[in-house]
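Quick check before the chapter quiz. The format below is the same one you will see on the exam, so make sure you can read both the input and the output lines.
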Amino acid sequence: MVKEFALYSRSYFHFAIIHMKSFLTALALFASSVVPLHCQEETSPRETLNHTDAIILGAVEGATEYLPVSSTGHLILTNRLLGLDSEEPLSNKEGATLTNDEGAPITLKSASDSYSIIIQIGAILAVLIIYRESIKKILLGLLGKNKEGQLLGRNLIIAFFPAAALGPVLDDTIERLLFGTTPVAIALIAGSGLIFFIERYRKNTEHSATGPELHELSIKQCLIIGLLQCVAMCPGTSRSLMTISGGILIGLNSKKAAEFSFLLGLITLTAAAGYKMVFSGREMFQVLTPGPVVLGILIAWITAAISVKWLVNYLTKHGLALFAWYRVALAILIFAIFGL
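Here is the expected output.
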């Protein structure tokens, strides 16, 4: 029985790696065909996102949102490869320059950056469905009918508080200074170093004991995870990496750390998407049509559900080392394609 289980695990792991390699190979071939076109001077700048862009961006968002590889970093790179990073002001059919609520010109880059946040709604829906029982407990807890759910809800709110306080203050500065390929590559490498540290720490401390339950965490432990989540505001760092690492550092095993990360992400991503919808929704919908927006959310939902299921199963049997090597490889690829 043990041999059969081990054989199944190895087969499942090899299956995932083969398909990951196939995906990266397809992405590389796609990039090689897009970049030259984007760099030709005679090519006119893009003016909107189409359905193909929506499918690609939705797939990238959903596949990477809950993996410790930085979904924001991947989306910045994907936007660059698709030619969606143009800073030229856009105009309407009458030739008038489009502007946002502050009177600044709207560019395709600003609209696509906002779109990258909005399609996180798909990733939110995936967690809502997969962890519906935990969410039901939390809702009952808010009504005073489930003690464990009440404590879990409290813990998630405490962990969310640091990002809620710092996010609106730092959002514009981070987008202006760090939404680029070089900061992403540097953050990817730095994150890989954190993973190697966390792996050594986990192997020295994680035993047969499962650690505390999520509702048993103290206020201090929740704040530690929340503060680490703030570090992930820097593109390329990964919200999932920082919160899973925080969970392991405070004594959770890998599986429970991932589950707390997913549930915390439900609040954080909802807040981020809502914030962008309120402050950049008008700007985005002046450039985008509803079709690509809905399609991107749908694709992100499907791929995020697959990603979450896979990650939980993977972390139950393995550590995070695979993602460290992936981050290093991706950073090298970024430097090779885009330079410094």
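If your answer matched, good. The first helix runs from residue 2 to 39.
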